[in-house]
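Posting this for the archive.
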Amino acid sequence: MKRISIWLLILGFSALTACAQDDATQQQINKLNGQIQDLIEAKDVQAKRISELEKEIGELRDKSGQPGATDSANADDLKKLADQVQEIDKKRQADRELILKEIEKLGKVGGTTSGRRSTPTVSTNPPSGGTNPGGKQNGYEYSIQRNDTINIVAKAYRDQGIKVTADQILKANPGLDPKNLKVGQKIFIPAPAQ
């Protein structure tokens, strides 16, 4: 009987050990099952995200195939362009200084200290009637000065408040060759209509 009791005790102990192992195994299975569910959910989320990215890539391909899609500049392009603009500006400044020096030299050679044309002296006495070779009209008589052009004369009169254009001066002086003006030549400047 002692033997049977020992065997029952061993069998009971073995059953308890097996039962405890079954509980531990079941817990591990439950834990793995939960992790598998988490992985399946993460895979679904990733699949959805990949699908969205594929759609976005397709849209970008469509846009890049359209004319004008690659007209944008990146930061490197803008930096290169800014460097080129600065280089051009430096060259422009150097050219400007060189031109000013050359103008000063020309002014000294020509006997004037500034290389600019002088503004013609215009007579703005009240308009007289009839010095126009084309007939009676109110206006002014002007003597051509050195370096004058019809445009310069018209501007000088406009600066004095007399509204006249180069075309009006040419019409008022038939036969006048604007490319062959002579110093001292008299021309008629028409007065604006009142």
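Residues 2-65 form the longest helix (64 residues). The first strand starts at residue 128 and ends at 129.
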